[in-house]
């Protein structure tokens, strides 16, 4: 018998840091787009694992791969070779159109992948004209470790952790002139999320990324994409830059959906840039361990064999139609809708946190970012009927909400 949600919460109150806004629910089981709490209540999860559950909860291929790998070899240090890591590098590299034959570096999370990208850009910059500065976007999000937090252009998240890492500058999204002015001779790289996730689902335009590519080439700076949230199928292609029709970057990184729930991050870089990460310059004990790589290979198998990319595009359009129908129903309550593939935002004219709580009470899990933005990151294998079920719950909640 699982501990009740109430008793679990009491343990948390005494023994666990209170640094997350947690719903008072002890979640005990997940399957696809559904989660169950200790009281046996079922929830439709349209944000599984906050983007980690790209295949939903406990995807069968990933579960089978983890079970098999756990019986053979869980961990060895990166001083040896193991086939799964090399094969995963090959698979990700082959998907990275326009990057030549990029090489992969593996770590355990999104923030570590951001750190790896920033460090590699600096190594390359120092070797190519003593450049060190990194330009990032305002309202971006790259993680919570100090380098990634510094790159995160949101002063409210940085407050209290100063002094931050020196040598960063920020520009507004989709403003070519501001980027041009920021790309001074000491800049090693411009980094951005092709679609800002935590910032409220704000895509960079194709024209902006084309201009960024041209400016970076002209000024001899690198172009870096953080695809931790928007990558690995979420937009309907393996990488979001492909969906946007944007130029390829020099360095790109992923995490979240890559392990199907198991922690793994990956950075890919053009081979001549990857060469800067010489033995001893950077590393991690757990990065790309056999278990994590087995999970990620199973995720790629699922995306390919279950033909999930066209499904994401079709379900994304279905979700978009549903969100627009809600906007017609509640024109005063809904300010804006932004969507690319299965990454969607419903921007309200009032705070979203109470709406999220009411949805949860009614069996639907989504979240709120940037105060007013309801965020949807459904599993890539979500069914149209599940999206309809979620939209119906949200519609009932919005009806009862005083906007
Ligand atoms: C774009 C982006 N980069 C980096 C991160 C940090 O990832 P992690 O929480 O795995 O460290 C996130 C997390 O939300 C993210 O959305």
Give an overview of the whole structure.
About 40% of the residues lie in helices and about 20% in strands. It is of the alpha/beta class and about 400 residues long. It has a domain at about 60-305: Type I PLP-dependent aspartate aminotransferase-like (Major domain) (Aspartate Aminotransferase, domain 2, 3-Layer(aba) Sandwich), CATH 3.40.640. Strands 4-12-11-10-7-5-6 form a seven-stranded mixed sheet, sandwiched between helices. A hairpin with a 4-residue loop joins strand 2 (about 35) and strand 3 (about 40-45). The longest helix has 22 residues, at about 310-330. The two termini are about 40 Å apart. The model has no long low-confidence stretch (mean pLDDT about 95).
Distance between the termini: 41 Å
Bound ligands, named by name, code or SMILES: pyridoxal-5'-phosphate
State the CATH topology of the domain at 62-305.
Aspartate Aminotransferase, domain 2
Fraction in beta strands: 15-25%
Sequence stretches where pLDDT stays below 50 over 5 or more residues: none
Pairing-aware structural class of the strands and helices?
alpha/beta
Q: Biggest sheet: strands side by side, in what order?
A: 4-12-11-10-7-5-6
Averaged pLDDT, please? 97
Highest-level CATH class of the domain at 62-305: Alpha Beta
Which CATH architecture of the domain at 62-305 is right? 3-Layer(aba) Sandwich
Number of strands: 17
The percent range for helix content is 25-40%
Number of helices: 14
The radius of gyration over CA amounts to 21 Å
CATH superfamily of the domain at 62-305: Type I PLP-dependent aspartate aminotransferase-like (Major domain)
Biggest sheet details: 7 strands, mixed
Which outline best applies? Answer: globular
